[in-house]
Amino acid sequence: MPEPIDAALRERILHVLDTHRICTVATLRPDGWPQATTVGYVHEGLTVYFLCGRDSQKAANLARDDRVSLTIDHDTADLMAISGLSLAGHARAVEDEAVAGRVIAAMIAAYPEAAASPPIDPPAPRDVRIFAVTPVVISLLDYSKGFGHTDLVTL
After folding, report:
1. Which has the closest alpha carbon to 25: 38, 11, 12?
2. Which CATH number goes with the domain that contains 73?
3. What angle do CA 27, 44, 116 make, to 5 degrees?
């Protein structure tokens, strides 16, 4: 049964969000099948932002149905070190150009390694669709607490 989020659990969730840069986003296609794709993300608190092409299937799926699930994790050779999070929420298109510019700048800043290569030409907010995902349910997976252990919270 989900439980309200407490400060310690919120900090553990924020740590996962802070220490990763990509996630898998699942949307619903018109035929009802899920579509999962990998995207880069940034976050402000528990709100997760990602971007895609304006005419992409993700954007079309979310225009029809704003429900989304996403996962964040990493590979590990130690079975009992598996950790990550999944969340379900609602995605809304970011229309505010100031917010869109801030998200694009944060995404580029998330890749400092890119400074050593040719500069990244950031997309203009009008050329992409940026989504803000507001979570409803978050599941924090931590096998170090036992095989398959999760903390499930509602927001």
Report:
1. 38
2. 2.30.110.10
3. 90
